[in-house]
Amino acid sequence: MRAGLLGAGLVVGHFTALRVLPPGSQAATNLSVGVLILSALIAAASAGAAARRNTGRARYGWAVLALGMVGWAFGESVWAFYVTFREGHAPFPNVGDFGFLLMVPGAVAGMVAVLGVRRGLLRVMLDGLVIAGSLLFLSWAFILEPVYQAGNLTAGAKAMSLAYPLSDVLLAAVALILLHRAAPGHRATAALILAAALALSVGDLGFAYLNQHSTYTCGDPIDTGWVAGFVLMALAAHRAPAARPGDDAEQSVPILLWLPYLPLALAVLAAVDLLASGDRLSAFLSVLLGTVLLLVLARQLVALRDNTALSRDLHRVVAELRERENELHHLAYHDPLTGLANRALFVSAAEAARDDETLAVLYLDLDGFKPVNDVHGHAAGDALLIEVGRLLRAHTRADDLVARLGGDEFAVLMPGVSGRSEAEDLARRLTERLTQPFGILGHTVRIGASVGVGLREEGDLSVDALLRRADESMYAVKSTRPGRRPVVERV
């Protein structure tokens, strides 16, 4: 807030002083060039401070902007040497003008680095050309063309004089493009940079108009446009937040996406107004406006191409998300080791079984599994569990659901069985098969299994009752059998 008030005070004070002092006086000249050099150096110092508190692209961007401001201060110092110390008019053009114009590439490069884009670069370039062409049309139609034709300067002086407003057109176009692509924390900075470019344009357009008619004197109130531009640039650097990871992400504001077309609309309205008033568009303006319209068409084609690519990428991302969703669903309802259903899926399937069909559950507990882990390690134990899961799937029906409930405990859900005898017959076959040897990691391992059978009865309100019944049956079987230890043989 304080910096803004100080900057506003400097701008207002400069303009007021130049209005009060006699035009073209040495006092007005000395005051103007002094404030201009000071404001450019303040902008350079502020940009340098922003470079120090930033990293990466932002640091280089602010550093280049600072160098651009220093270049402008150098150019103004050359003018000051002529008009103040020699108390005469500065030759035009002179070496100081190159310092002025060096600010333009520095400012453009700095803005692109600080607020630049990484995606859709072609569309951004076309936006910039549309804006620059539209602003050039407006500037040429109402200021530059009549000034250029009426001026009495040399060709070199005219070219240099026109270079100032044309360079500001470029600055304003770049700032306008980058405004809607700046990250949320940098939008105030982008808006201030745009305002600075427009203020510099006011100063340069006024300078071009007065200079073409040989009526410009250093210390003219139009100089305040330059002071305002540098003050706004200093405020932009002062308000710029330090770069953080992720700040390079581009986030466009939807309403600002139409900003590149505002200068175009103004250019078209200006052309209509000129034609309606009986004026003819010059060949240059006609070609310029036609080129801008072709650029708009090219921009729309590029946007269509980008949208098509975006739609294709979106479909790919959606497919990947669905695949990932299926994977997560599978992980949520399946045992990661054996690939069998887990307890959650087992319970869900049991609860979903029809009430009018016979539902049986086999509860399996491996006998002698722990010694396999103790003798050969957990890798062997895991391999054994995987082989047991494969065996259970191979010896059950297609409609049966095989699940690993945890540890060395398994279960088989059998919907639609003919009766207990069918379930007990499967339990007997599985028991006999599990007593046969397994080849595990170069070893032959023999284990056993205790299998209990539970049948859904009338009045069962939950799956827990069915599981508990099968579990009790399994423990009854286990209690009638002597403990078995695995027989381990080398293959």
From TrEMBL:
Q: Which Gene3D superfamilies match?
A: 3.30.70.270
Q: Which residues cross the membrane?
A: 27-50, 62-82, 98-117, 124-142, 162-179, 191-210, 225-243, 255-275, 281-302
Taxonomy, superkingdom:
Bacteria
Full protein name: GGDEF domain-containing protein
User: Start and end of every GGDEF domain?
Assistant: 357-491
- Provide the coiled-coil residue spans: none
What is the native source organism of this protein? Actinoplanes palleronii
Which keywords does UniProt give here? Membrane, Transmembrane, Transmembrane helix
